[in-house]
Amino acid sequence: MNVFSKERLLKDVMQCSKIEGIDPLDVAERLSKMAAIGVTPEGGITRYPYTKEEREVKEVFRGWMESIGLEVHVDPIGNLFGRLIGENPELPVVMTGSHLDTVPNGGAFDGALGCLSSLMAIEAIIKQGLKPQRTIELAVFVDEEGARFKNGIFGSRAMMGEVTAEQLKNFSDADGITLEEAMKEQGYLPGQILLGKRRAEDIFAFLELHIEQGKILENEEKNIGIVNGIAGPSWRTFTFLGNTDHAGNTPMHMRKDTVTAAAEFILGVEKLPRTFSPTAVATVGRMNVFPNGTNIIAGKTEVVVDARDIHVDKRDELLEAITQLAHEIAQARELEVKVESGISIPPVMVPDSIQSMIARAAERHGLSTRTLPSGAGHDAMILGKYVPSGMIFVPSHKGKSHSPEEWTSLPDCVNGIVVMKEVLFELANQN
Ligand SMILES: [Zn+2]
Predict the structure, then answer these.
(1) How high is the pLDDT of residue 232?
(2) Domain end: 293, 312, 344, which one?
């Protein structure tokens, strides 16, 4: 499988940033090699956690880590680590990495490019003969996507001690296999999950490269995205309750229609975020209509709102305004509305010092930058709760992600690796 077209490859290579120790052909070859594992008939990639495909890609990746001389180990639940030992190994480490699992029929870059960038940045440090003071540790986290057990960003949460062995019994895949069983099947030791826990004070900083999964960088023709914060999602379900009646025999003025209430509500939700913060977003991606019949006025409609911002106070104010709106609409239409809170993950801010390190590194290599929030959750969102964490974004073609159309050009991939290398080395030499 070729992630980059063969015909264009040489032209692409010519356009890549030149930096000692990073061969763009290696980037292309390694991304293609990973993309061939778990390939689907639709041309996408499916690599669920704790499967043959995920094991295979991790083995390939482990081989690359060993080939550049990293000290490799695996924790009890399958997080994979490779260390470049620093001149002062007793100092807290600089950690970097991402994930190699995918969503069903996903793309070749989400996660994989992050892991590869960390690897190749470390490789360049080694090849340039640089000696970092701190140990640089590459982490490949298991089950970031949550596609199989609906329990995402799992590996990084487990590493920070947020998951107990007992909780592993509570998550099952579509075949009823629990997370615990799936781990055991692959030879891991779920009962010892806490032995893999790392102390925040042993990690100096964390850095992750990821595809943007949006269109901002491409539209503005910027090379590098400097993430200023990772927006944590907060979900709320609004259930409008009215009367279920016949569509033919109920005059318009006698109806208590919950679908029209939901429609008014959703349009209102769309307008609210911009009045709170330029980075706030709110989405209705899911609604359920009961009984959902063509000739029945629906007596019950559930609307699920996903609200995000990098500023937690603004996000929570936005959710309150959305809730207020639901009550107002229900009251005006003489309906009832029930409100239930779902997950709520705090956003994480990226320290200014890391943002400016990324900016300076890009500038040194003549790369343009754009500061932007990450709307999606990443392993860095978990690490960021405990240690200073930063993210480098590279452009996503047409903003496509979680699909076979996901694509980032080879020069953009190499640009990201160059910046990653510079920032990792700078962090590794900080006091
Ligand atoms: Zn990802």
Answers:
(1) 85
(2) 344
Is 1 a member of any domain? no
* Co-location of 149 and 218 in the same domain: yes
Distance 144 CA to ligand 1 centre (A): 7
Q: Which of 291, 312, 344 is the last residue of a domain?
A: 344
Question: How many angstroms is it from 375 CA to the middle of ligand 1?
Answer: 12
CA distance 162 to 383: 11
Rounded CA gap, 39 and 35, in Å? 7
Whether 274 and 147 share a structural domain: no
Domain interval for residue 238 = 232-344
| pLDDT the model gives residue 212 | 97
Q: What is the domain count for the chain?
A: 2
**What's the gap in Å between 97 CA and the centre of ligand 1?**
11
CB 389 within 8 Å of CB 210 = no
The mean pLDDT values, 10 residues at a time, for the chain of 431 residues are 88 92 96 96 95 98 98 98 98 98 96 98 98 98 93 94 95 95 97 97 98 97 97 93 96 97 98 95 95 97 95 95 98 97 89 98 98 93 96 97 95 98 98 89
CA 291 / ligand 1 centre spacing (Å)? 37
Q: pTM here?
A: 0.89
Spacing, Cα 192 to ligand 1 middle (Å): 26
Distance 360 CA to ligand 1 centre (A): 25
Quote the ligand 1 centre to 169 CA distance (angstroms): 25
Ligand 1 centroid distance, CA of 382 (Å): 13
Catalogue the long-range contacts made by 274-277 (C-beta closer than 8 Å, 24 or more residues apart).
Answer: 275/321, 276/309, 276/314, 276/317, 276/318, 276/321, 277/309, 277/311, 277/314, 277/318
Query: Residues 52, 197: one domain?
Result: yes
Residue ranges of E strands in 71-135 = 71-74, 80-84, 93-99
CATH number for the domain harbouring residue 327: 3.30.70.360
